[in-house]
User: Which sequence fits this backbone?
C-alpha cells in the first residue's frame, strides 16, 4: 500500500492509541489498513493517561510490544505499586494502598502481564513505530478525515492534507478513532449520551530538580494531597526531575494566573520548579448512542469518555480496537459473515458503560471530600483526625486502586457469539517461568484443554468445513475451551447449551 492508495480494506480516522491499536490488530491478522492523523508528531507536553492496565499489557504482548513498552517506561514496574495519601508531598502521611493498578502482578498466575505506569505519549510512540514497521499498516500524518459517504459496498472518505490538499480514499470499512470531537461520529448522525462533572481541574507538568530527595514517603504511583486549602494529586513522570500534578477545584483562569503557586501548595513547601505545560479539564461521563453502522464504526474516545479516576479510559479504547479489529479481519478474510460486526457494539458498549459508572463512583469522593482541617493543625489535632480520615480513604478509594474485577474480569457473556456461560477472558496461568498459557493461543480460534476429549476432533472437522482458522493446544489440567482471537472464551465443555461443535463455531463467528 502506497501513500497515494485510492483503496484500502480499512481506513482509520485518528492515530491516537485506539486508532493505532486497531491498525495493529488488523495487521496481526494480515489485513491492511491506512491510519490518517493530523498530528505530525506525538505531543509530549501533556501525558494524559499514565496507567496501562494489566489487560492492555496482555494485548500488547499478543503483538510482541509489551517488553518494548516497559523499556520506554520512565518508571519501572518494580519501582512502586503504592498510592500514598498525605497532607502534602512533603507533609504528613495519612494512609496508603499497596498493589495498585495491577502493578504487582509480575509472575502472578492471574495475568500474563502486570500493569505499567507510562505516559500516553510514550505508548503512542511505541505504537507508531510498530505501525511503521508493519507491512500491513500505514500511518499518514498531517492528514485528517473531513467527510464520508457510505454505500452498500463500502465508504468513500474525503481527506484533507498539508497545503490544502484534498484526496478521496475508498475503503471497505471505516473506523472513527478520532477522539471526543469525532468527525466520523457526527457524519453518521450519532451523539453522546451522558453528563459532565462541573468541578474544574487543572493539570500541571513541572520540572523540579532535587524534589524527589525531599519526599519522606518513599516511592509511590500517586501522592494524594488531602489539604483543605490545596487538594489534589502529585506524581512522578520519570526518576529524574519531571513531575505532574492535578489541582482539584481550580479553574483555568486561576491555574494559568500562577501555576507555580499551585505546585508549591501541593508540594507543601518552597520548591524551585519550571512549569512545562498546563491543561485545564472537566471530567465527562459520555457514551455514544450507537457504535456505528454497517460499514462505519466508532472506537476509543469517539465512542466513550469517562473520568480518569481508576485509569480506565485509554485502556477501554485498546479493548475496543482488539474486539473490532479481529472481527473486521475475519470478515475481510472471508471466514466470517458481515453479521459478525454487529456484535462489536453488543460486546463493547456495555463494557464502556460499566467503566464510566465505576469511574464516576471513584470520582464521587476526591481529595476535597476527604480533607479535614485538623490534618493541617498541631500534631495532636492531626493524630485525632487521622484514624477517621484514613478509614474513609480506605473505604471509598479501594476500588479505584484495586479494580481487577473490571480490568481482567469483564465478560461478553450473553452476547450473540457466546455459547452457555462462557464469555470471560480465558483464565491465565504460567506453564513455566516466562511461558504464559496465552503465548500458546493462535491468531484465529484456539481449542485448548484436554484434547483427548471426543469433542476435540469434531471441532477440528467443523473448523475445516467452515474455513475458520483453528489451532490446538493440549493442556490436560484444564477443561476443553474454544478461545476467540481476543483471548475470550466462546464455549467451554463445562457449560450448558448446544453441544454440536459446528453450531458452536458458527455462532462464535457471527452466523445467526
Assistant:
Amino acid at each position: 500500500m502506497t501513500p497515494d492508495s485510492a483503496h484500502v480494506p480499512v481506513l482509520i480516522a485518528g492515530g491516537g492509541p485506539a486508532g493505532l491499536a486497531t491498525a495493529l490488530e488488523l495487521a496481526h491478522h494480515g489485513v491492511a489498513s491506512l491510519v490518517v492523523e493530523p498530528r505530525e508528531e506525538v505531543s509530549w507536553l501533556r501525558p494524559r493517561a499514565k496507567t496501562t492496565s494489566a489487560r492492555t499489557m496482555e494485548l500488547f504482548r499478543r503483538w510482541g510490544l509489551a517488553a518494548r513498552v516497559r523499556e520506554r517506561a520512565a518508571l519501572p514496574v518494580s519501582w512502586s505499586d503504592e498510592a500514598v495519601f498525605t497532607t502534602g508531598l512533603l507533609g504528613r502521611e495519612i494512609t496508603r494502598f499497596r498493589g495498585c493498578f495491577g502493578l504487582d502482578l509480575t509472575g502472578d498466575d492471574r495475568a500474563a502481564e502486570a500493569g505499567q505506569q507510562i505516559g500516553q505519549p510514550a505508548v503512542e510512540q511505541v505504537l507508531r513505530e510498530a505501525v511503521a514497521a508493519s507491512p500491513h499498516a500505514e500511518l499518514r500524518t498531517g492528514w485528517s478525515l473531513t467527510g464520508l459517504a457510505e454505500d452498500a459496498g463500502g465508504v468513500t472518505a474525503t481527506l484533507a492534507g498539508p497545503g490544502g490538499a484534498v484526496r478521496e480514499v475508498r475503503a471497505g470499512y471505516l473506523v472513527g478513532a478520532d477522539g471526543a470531537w469525532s468527525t466520523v461520529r457526527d457524519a453518521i448522525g450519532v451523539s453522546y449520551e451522558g453528563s459532565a462533572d462541573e468541578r474544574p481541574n487543572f493539570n500541571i507538568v513541572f520540572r523540579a530538580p532535587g524534589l524527589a530527595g525531599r519526599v519522606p514517603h518513599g516511592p509511590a504511583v500517586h501522592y494524594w494531597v488531602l489539604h483543605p486549602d490545596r487538594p489534589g494529586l502529585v506524581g512522578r513522570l520519570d526518576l529524574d526531575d519531571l513531575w505532574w500534578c492535578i489541582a482539584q477545584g481550580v479553574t483555568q483562569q486561576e491555574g494559568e494566573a500562577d501555576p507555580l503557586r499551585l505546585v508549591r501548595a501541593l508540594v507543601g513547601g518552597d520548591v524551585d520548579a519550571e512549569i512545562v505545560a498546563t491543561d485545564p479539564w472537566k471530567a465527562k461521563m459520555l457514551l455514544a448512542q450507537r457504535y456505528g453502522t454497517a460499514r462505519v464504526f466508532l472506537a476509543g474516545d469517539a465512542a466513550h469518555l469517562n473520568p480518569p479516576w481508576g485509569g480506565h479510559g485509554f485502556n477501554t479504547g485498546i479493548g475496543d480496537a482488539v474486539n473490532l479489529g479481529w472481527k473486521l479481519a475475519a470478515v475481510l478474510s472471508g471466514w466470517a459473515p458481515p453479521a459478525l460486526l454487529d456484535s462489536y457494539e453488543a460486546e463493547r458498549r456495555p463494557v464502556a458503560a460499566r467503566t464510566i459508572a465505576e469511574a464516576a463512583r471513584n470520582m464521587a469522593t476526591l481529595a476535597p471530600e476527604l480533607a479535614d482541617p485538623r490534618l493541617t493543625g498541631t500534631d495532636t489535632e492531626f493524630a485525632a483526625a487521622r484514624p477517621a480520615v484514613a478509614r474513609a480513604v480506605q473505604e471509598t478509594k479501594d476500588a479505584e486502586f484495586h479494580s481487577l474485577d473490571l480490568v481482567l474480569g469483564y465478560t461478553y457473556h450473553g452476547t450473540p457469539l457466546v455459547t452457555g456461560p462462557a464469555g470471560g477472558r480465558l483464565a491465565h496461568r504460567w506453564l513455566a517461568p516466562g511461558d504464559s498459557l496465552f503465548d500458546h493461543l493462535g491468531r484465529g480460534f484456539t481449542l485448548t484443554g484436554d484434547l483427548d476429549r471426543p469433542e476435540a476432533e469434531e471441532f477440528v472437522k467443523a473448523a475445516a468445513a467452515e474455513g475458520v482458522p483453528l489451532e490446538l493446544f493440549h493442556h490436560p489440567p484444564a477443561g476443553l475451551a474454544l478461545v476467540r482471537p481476543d483471548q475470550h472464551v466462546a464455549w467451554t465443555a463445562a457449560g450448558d447449551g448446544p453441544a454440536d461443535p459446528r453450531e458452536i463455531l458458527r455462532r462464535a463467528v457471527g452466523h445467526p
In short: The longest strand covers residues 166-176.
